[in-house]
Amino acid sequence: MEVVAEFGLRVVSQFQSPTLAFLIGGVLLAASGSKLVIPDAIYKFAVFMLLMRIGLNGGMEIREANLADMILPALAATGLGAGIVLLGLITLARLPGIRRDDAIATAGLFGAVSASTLGAAMVLLEQDGITYEAWVPALYPFMDIPALVLAIVLARLHAEKEGKSKGKRLSVWAIVKDSLQGSALSALILGLLLGLFTNPGRVFDTFYDPLFRGLLSVLMLIMGMEAWQRLNELRRVAQWYAVYAAIMPLVHGLLAFGFGYLIHLATGFSPGGVILLAVLASSS
């Protein structure tokens, strides 16, 4: 009973944290019919700042890290990204009322990583004094790209099987290149490279790091408002999507936690690193 009580108190305390408070505030604003609108340019700037901060910090830490310690987590992230897509293919695609191509697309989205969720998890760990290797957020592309590539390849193969393909040759490299050129990954990779090969410590300490939590709160507010607005869409889609969206992030997170724990036993991977790996896997 003590464990259950402690877990309950922790849940309540997390809902009182600034990060989740802004998320709930966004939900309440949208539910109340508020006409508050946060310009899309501000949202994009906040995401850019968030990913640059994560990338710069990760790049600076990688310079000091033992690269051998990163191999197993990177392999786990890659396998999880692909595994999440395959899991969606053998579960969601077999449910009644779900088209196979829609299931593949959904699985690809669930394999992709949410930068704002990752940022929120980092803040919560720091608030609780739980340490993690600063390079762990750099596992983002190791999970994101395999998931997107595999989903697109499977969708193309399905289209060819159904006779819907226009016969264009499938280029895996073109898919990888397109993923790398996406705004989120571009910002993260730029930050990583700058942190790895330059000395951005001063601009990081005086600009990116101090603004991190404030801009994250803006993102959480936007996410809350968007979450409420999208609830109405559930009435227009197969209800299996709602079931999948409620259950599978927990499954993905638990799978990643299991892999992370095995890596912890093998290499001393930090508990905070295990948690962030689980958050990466469950963040969509």
Task: Report on the architecture of this protein.
With 284 residues, the chain is an all-alpha fold. The protein has 12 helices and no strands. The longest helix has 31 residues, at 201-231. It is globular and about 55 Å long. The mean pLDDT is 86.
Per-chain topology:
Layout: H1 2-15, H2 18-31, H3 40-64, H4 68-91, H5 100-111, H6 115-127, H7 140-161, H8 172-180, H9 183-197, H10 201-231, H11 239-267, H12 271-282
User: What level of helicity do the residues show?
Assistant: over 70%
Radius of gyration: 20 Å
Structural class: mainly alpha
Gross morphology? globular
User: How many helices?
Assistant: 12
Q: Give the helices and strands as they follow along the chain.
A: HHHHHHHHHHHH
Short recap of the structure:
With 284 residues, this protein is mainly alpha-helical. The chain has helices at 2-15, 18-31, 40-64, 68-91, 100-111, 115-127, 140-161, 172-180, 183-197, 201-231, 239-267, 271-282.
